[in-house]
C-alpha cells in the first residue's frame, strides 16, 4: 500500500510526525511510506530509513501542479497531520481514495475520513495526536517506536572532528539562545549569559553555543558578551542532518521550545527546555518524541517574581550536573 503522510510546516512540527511515519512502516514493511514536507525538512526526511519517498511542497506551485505530483505517486491512502485547504483539495483532485485528517477548518470537507481531535484542549501531546490518526486508519497498529528514533553511523566521527577543530576535551553542554516557530517564552540574553557563566565556572564541561544559519548577528552579540571565555560559537550552516549528527553527542541541549529542541530529542540528547505558560505553548502539548527521562521542562511564568524564582531553579539544576 502506498501511504502518504502530510506535514508541511516547520522543523519541530515535522519531527512530531516522524513516529507516525515509523509506525506505518513497521505495521507492514511492504507499505510504501511517502511524505509531503516543506523544503526545509527534505534532507531530514531523506535521512529516515522508514520513509520511502519524499515529496516537497514549497507552497508556491499551483494547486494543479501539486495535485499532479500526488497523483503520480499512486497513493492509496493519505494521513494529513496538519491541513490547509490547498493540500486538502490537491489530495481530492489527485483521486486518493482514503483521506484521513483532523476535522478542523474548512479544509475538512475535502477528506472522507474526518477525525475530531480538538488539539487546542491539549489532552495529548502533538506527536500523540499524530499517532492517533494512524490508529484511525489502522485500528490494530502498534504505535510504539524506538527512542532515539533516529541514529547515524557517522555521528561519532563528525563529533570527533568537531572536538578536534574546536579544542573540546570534556563533555559538552550546548545552549541555543535563539528561537522561532510557536515558541513564545525564553530567557533574555542577559539571563542566558548568567546561565552560561555558571556552567563555565564549574570547569567541568565545555560549552557550545549553537546558532541557525540566519542567526549570525545573534552569534556576534553573544561573542561580544562572552569575550575571553572558552566557548565555542557554532553557526550551523552545513545542513540540518549534519547538525543532528553533531548534537547527538552533546551531554545536554538547553533551549526554548523550538525546532532544534525537537531535533536534539529525536537523536537521543538530554534536553532542558523552556515553554510558555499556556496550553498552546506548553510542554504538555509540545513535549518531544524522545525518552521522557531525558527531558527537563520549565514553564516560564509571566509574573516577574515567579519568573525570577524559576530562573534560580534553573541555575541550581545546571550547577548540580
Please tell me about this protein's structure.
The protein has 321 residues and is α/β, with parallel strands linked by helices. It folds into 2 domains: 2-137, Rossmann fold (3-Layer(aba) Sandwich); 155-319, Glycogen Phosphorylase B (Rossmann fold, 3-Layer(aba) Sandwich), CATH 3.40.50. 39% of the residues lie in helices and 19% in strands. It is built from 12 helices and 12 strands. The protein has helices at 11-27, 42-46, 63-72, 85-93, 126-137, 155-166, 189-202, 216-225, 240-247, 259-266, 283-286, 304-319, and strands spanning 2-7, 32-37, 53-56, 77-80, 98-102, 113-115, 172-176, 206-211, 231-235, 252-256, 270-276, 295-300. The protein has a 6-stranded parallel sheet with strand order 3-2-1-4-5-6, sandwiched between helices. Strands 9-8-7-10-11-12 form a 6-stranded parallel sheet, sandwiched between helices. α6 packs across α9 (240-247). The longest helix is centred in the first third of the chain and has 17 residues, at 11-27. It is globular, with a radius of gyration of 21 Å. The model has no long low-confidence stretch (mean pLDDT 95).
